[in-house]
Design a protein that fits this description.
The protein has 270 residues and is an alpha+beta fold. The chain has one domain: paralog of FGE (formylglycine-generating enzyme), CATH 3.90.1580.10. It has helices spanning 2-12, 30-50, 118-128, 165-174, 182-188, 218-221, and strands at 76-79, 82-86, 102-106, 109-112, 136-139, 142-145, 152-153, 199-205, 230-233, 250-252, 261-262, 266-268. The strands form 4 sheets. Strands 10-9-8-11 form a 4-stranded mixed beta sheet. A 3-stranded antiparallel beta sheet has the order 1-4-12, with helices on one face. A 3-stranded antiparallel beta sheet has the order 5-6-7, with no helix packed on it. Strand 5 and strand 6 (142-145) form a beta hairpin. The termini are far apart. The model has no long low-confidence stretch (mean pLDDT 92).
Length: 270
């Protein structure tokens, strides 16, 4: 392994990766950043899939969401109407679907500072008969989680996770709110609390930004554009910090529940 590492470093020393590199794949180390990002993303994806294996138990028990104490009735932050810049800038690593950075006009809205808690979601289920999140099982009169091969009582203060887009949308409507668009989510991000615990469903379909350019190949983003996939924002406890950029756009099928996805609600401002 040491020999391989040494040889790899020798090769890298001969490669031009500066901002003026002729090869766009190498410019600012894009292709290396992309490879590292893919590996980090697939670490989370593999954990999601391993959870679906009957009898799976993680090698270490710290593979779980950190403690949280979310309010059952979250406070909201107001974002005023106006223009907001969305997307990644021209410098630094980002995927093609995060670019180009552009301005969008948003009407005023109020977005919850914190995600929806387990306690709030339990209220929703009891009031509506709604479906429980994946990996939840009845435990006497309460609920237990069986995710990652570990059975433990549901913590009411943690954000609800492993819900589909339909479950998230139904909860938002039940509380008289809605799911944010991805543009609203990104515009409000500096004011939000408890980001990084769960991916957060948005109401947006995964579509190209204005003047989108596929790079380095159409199959990374372009083939997924349309009405089939919903955008998630934020990043979860299992997401590497280098992946969870402010403009990072995750996308998945709305029926998926094994992903570490939850809910944050928004309403139109008066």
């Amino acid at each position: 392994m040491a020999d391989v590492r040494e040889r790899a470093l020798e090769v890298l020393d001969t490669v031009e990766i500066g901002p003026d590199a002729e090869d766009r794949l190498l410019r600012e180390g894009f292709v290396y950043e992309m490879l590292l990002a893919h590996e980090l993303q697939h670490n989370e994806t593999m954990l999601q899939l391993l959870q679906l294996v009957d009898g799976y138990e993680p090698a270490r028990d710290e593979f779980s969401m950190p403690a949280a104490d979310l309010p059952i009735r979250p406070r909201a932050v107001r974002v005023e109407a106006g223009e907001h810049e969305i997307g990644a800038g021209p410098r630094g690593f980002a995927y093609d679907n995060e670019r180009p950075r552009h301005r969008v006009e948003l009407t005023a809205f109020e977005i919850d500072r914190t995600p929806v808690s387990n306690a709030a979601y339990i209220e929703f289920m009891e009031a509506t008969g709604g479906e429980s999140p994946q990996y939840w099982e009845r435990d006497g009169e309460g609920w237990a989680s069986t995710a990652r091969g570990i059975r433990k009582p549901i913590d009411p203060g943690q954000p609800v996770v492993h819900v589909s887009w339909g479950q998230a949308d139904a909860f938002a409507r039940w509380v008289g709110k809605r799911l944010p668009t991805e543009q609203e989510w990104e515009a409000a991000r500096p004011s939000l609390d408890s980001t990084g615990l769960i991916w957060e469903w948005t109401s947006s379909h995964f579509r190209a930004y204005p003047d989108f350019e596929a790079f380095p190949y159409p199959e990374y983003s372009e083939v997924f554009f349309g009405d089939e996939y919903k955008v998630l924002r934020g990043g979860s406890w299992a997401t590497h910090p280098d992946v969870a950029r402010p403009g990072f756009r995750n996308w998945d099928l709305p029926q998926r529940r094994q992903i570490f996805a939850g809910i944050r609600c928004v309403r139109d401002a008066d």
